[in-house]
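Researcher: Sequence recovery benchmark, item below. Answer with residues only.
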């Protein structure tokens, strides 16, 4: 519709709103988030779990682009959306996704043009190096497919020389194409020689040993020094620059056997990232412009090195991650799009934007606060004992000191505490003399009450006090057995507090 036509409709709406009998406002605009990916990815369990949680945002609707539409239809026929989540995988037409983004200009959570770079390990390593992120020492061997023998590679028994740089065995050989997972590790002759050949998991295997010790003679590769880890790889998953989830798995370079649980899922171990690793995660996320981004860390020699960036990746089988991911993504979408659609939404208190400040060790997350729990070393700990009482003597004491006015009573004065002690002594004597007496208070509790009040031989200071609270229907019971034994009628909850003596731990205080 033209601007004039739209303006006329708006004027008509305002007049109807003024003259109409009802006060109904027009329906609020929903934000449409589109998922453009191959069906294997868009209908995967992690994606399904996250989309179900995103749908709980009041102003967000989800639309999944059908795979046949993505592959066969021109981008003009693709569904409309305000925000696009799109990522490359095998068979995905990334060129068409880029064309769609130019046509519709949606908010992109994962930049599409940067996904071309992620498909080339040479570009990945170049970007990481430019960002100052630690990498294993590496060299790039580019071969002309028509003349594979013309290259800067010199191979020795226990080393290779790439462009004049020497890599002694063990070293790693990676195809420059990130979609090619046939990564080889070559061992020195002193360790038996040969190579470990890694590949995408097939059943329970992720690598096999080969006696072949010579490097591949066709194709372009990255050669890098082998990093001695503890036998695990760390997988990091970002959701925006300020959220990173990390897991460790058994390294495929060990024996090639995949560790699986009783349900057949690969075993992952939770990992706590260091402050520097969190900063690396932030840098990777921002450098590649991928809100949702997975990458691999190698922990070796006291340092962490990034050895691969995978782009769009989700954690598997973590409900906490699904909750967090949906929350972060939903808040990002609302923060960016709510204002332009006039949607009443405010940024939650737990905003994802954590200030980054320069320090002597580089840029780090700002320390917001320090919470400390500190107690004096020269004081005894404060202690507490609770008991329910029903004896008339306690009710008389409660009434005497005005407890019924507020339903609560605090007894701190020596005379008041002496009255409580006298009641405890009297009830204990009656329990000893009359085994069948109707004293409901537990003997052990009364003995503890008597012992605490008799401590130190006198009442002084503020190191003891008794609180009485009126319970109209008695104290609720924790179990069905206690419920069966519960007595009707009111009772008093007696709370005895003691300890915190300032001189108890000093030398010579006894």
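Model:
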């Amino acid at each position: 519709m033209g601007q004039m036509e739209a303006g006329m409709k708006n004027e008509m709406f305002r007049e109807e709103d003024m003259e109409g009998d009802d006060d109904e406002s027009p329906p609020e605009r929903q934000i449409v988030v589109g998922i453009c990916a191959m069906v294997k990815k868009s209908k995967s369990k992690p994606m399904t779990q996250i989309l179900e949680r995103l749908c709980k945002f009041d102003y967000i609707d989800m639309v999944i682009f059908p795979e046949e539409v993505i592959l066969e239809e021109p981008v003009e026929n693709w569904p409309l959306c305000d925000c696009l989540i799109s990522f490359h995988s095998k068979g995905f037409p990334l060129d068409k996704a880029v064309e769609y983004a130019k046509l519709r200009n949606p908010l992109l959570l994962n930049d599409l043009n940067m996904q071309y770079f992620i498909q080339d390990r040479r570009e990945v390593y170049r970007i990481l190096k430019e960002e100052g992120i630690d990498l294993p020492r590496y060299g790039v061997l580019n071969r002309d497919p028509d003349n594979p023998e013309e290259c800067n590679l010199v191979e020795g028994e226990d080393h290779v020389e790439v462009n004049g740089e020497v890599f002694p065995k063990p070293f790693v050989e990676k195809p420059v194409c990130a979609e090619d997972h046939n990564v080889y590790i070559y061992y020195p002759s002193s360790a038996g020689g040969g190579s470990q050949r890694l590949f995408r998991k097939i059943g329970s295997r992720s690598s096999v040993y080969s006696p072949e010790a010579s490097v591949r003679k066709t194709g372009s590769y990255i050669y890098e020094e082998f990093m001695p880890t503890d036998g695990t790889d760390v997988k990091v998953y970002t959701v925006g620059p300020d959220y990173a989830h990390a897991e460790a798995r058994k390294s495929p370079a060990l024996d090639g056997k995949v560790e699986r649980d009783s349900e057949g899922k690969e075993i992952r171990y939770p990992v706590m990232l260091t402050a520097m690793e969190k900063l690396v995660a932030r840098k990777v996320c921002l450098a590649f412009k991928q809100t949702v981004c997975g990458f691999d860390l190698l922990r070796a020699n006291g340092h962490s090195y990034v050895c691969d960036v995978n782009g769009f990746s989700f954690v598997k089988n973590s409900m906490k991650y699904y909750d967090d991911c949906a929350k972060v993504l939903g808040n990002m979408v609302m923060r960016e799009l709510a204002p332009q659609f006039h949607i009443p939404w405010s940024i939650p208190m737990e905003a994802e934007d954590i200030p980054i400040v320069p320090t002597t060790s580089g840029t780090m997350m700002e320390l917001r606060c320090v919470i400390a729990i500190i107690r004096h070393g020269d004081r005894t700990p404060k202690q507490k004992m609770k008991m329910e009482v029903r004896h008339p003597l306690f009710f008389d004491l409660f009434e005497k000191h005005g407890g019924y006015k507020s339903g609560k009573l605090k007894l701190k004065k020596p005379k008041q505490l002496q009255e409580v002690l006298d009641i405890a002594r009297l009830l204990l004597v009656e329990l000893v003399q009359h085994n069948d007496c109707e004293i409901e208070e537990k003997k052990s509790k009364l003995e503890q009450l008597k012992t605490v009040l008799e401590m130190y031989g006198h009442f002084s200071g503020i190191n003891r006090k008794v609180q009485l609270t009126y319970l109209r229907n008695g104290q609720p019971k924790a179990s069905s057995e206690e419920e069966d034994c519960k007595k009707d009628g009111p009772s008093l909850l007696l709370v005895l507090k003691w300890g915190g003596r300032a001189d108890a731990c000093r030398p010579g205080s006894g």
